Amino acid sequence: MGIISIAAVAGLSLRSLIQNIIPPQEVTSSTFPTLTLVNSKTGQPIKTSDLTVNSPEIVVFNYPLQNEPNFLLRLGNSSGQDIAIKSVTVKIPATGQTYTSPGGVGPYKSVVASSAICQHLGCVPPEIHYYPPGTSIPNTGISGSSNHGLIHCNCHGSTYDPINGFSVVTGPTTHPLPSVVLSYDSSSDTYKAVSMVGPTIYGHSSDLSGGSAISGTSTEVVNEGTPST
């Protein structure tokens, strides 16, 4: 199974680690760090082959501050084939404002990332997690046939659509999940987090305040375990 993915199937107990390596730099109120995603099992930067399409295992990485979990997903259809994620206009229901999502990266344009903190009241994995295409989401009325791959929070029922910029599908949330902007180097098949777009991360006045900056040469990121249902 891929090192970086998120869970939708109960009973999984694998615990993996990712390391995020950044060049020494100070995170300021106007500067996002550049974070290279590294497979901790190999000690090497994440490759596309490390990411399984729609994989049912929760792993998150911290960005842009410490203790700021994010999802990394390689999205696909119900047949497990990569789908290219387009940049779209995303609406913030609370304000009516819109912004443009970054779209997918990687050789198939299928890899995306977002904050893993629910925008309603701040729940984190495993309470909020990804349901792959074809799986029913409990207590929502969303059946397998109507689910093309959604993120759902079991705390209070908020649902988000990663295919469409992590936009709001169902409340009570009134804000989409902030997207992490990823860069992809095709020559080395590696991924970096470089900034964020969308509403402010839940619980902060800005994405670069209200927490501890990522510093030093590396940071561990821990698999958050089996989702609650």
Automatic annotation (TrEMBL):
<keyword id="KW-1015">Disulfide bond</keyword>
<dbReference type="InterPro" id="IPR017941">
    <property type="entry name" value="Rieske_2Fe-2S"/>
</dbReference>
<feature type="region of interest" description="Disordered">
    <location>
        <begin position="208"/>
        <end position="229"/>
    </location>
</feature>
<dbReference type="GO" id="GO:0046872">
    <property type="term" value="F:metal ion binding"/>
</dbReference>
<keyword id="KW-0411">Iron-sulfur</keyword>
<protein>
    <submittedName>
        <fullName>Probable Rieske iron-sulfur protein soxL</fullName>
    </submittedName>
</protein>
<keyword id="KW-0479">Metal-binding</keyword>
<feature type="domain" description="Rieske">
    <location>
        <begin position="110"/>
        <end position="191"/>
    </location>
</feature>
<dbReference type="InterPro" id="IPR036922">
    <property type="entry name" value="Rieske_2Fe-2S_sf"/>
</dbReference>
<dbReference type="GO" id="GO:0051537">
    <property type="term" value="F:2 iron, 2 sulfur cluster binding"/>
</dbReference>
<dbReference type="InterPro" id="IPR014349">
    <property type="entry name" value="Rieske_Fe-S_prot"/>
</dbReference>
<dbReference type="Pfam" id="PF00355">
    <property type="entry name" value="Rieske"/>
</dbReference>
<keyword id="KW-0001">2Fe-2S</keyword>
<keyword id="KW-0408">Iron</keyword>
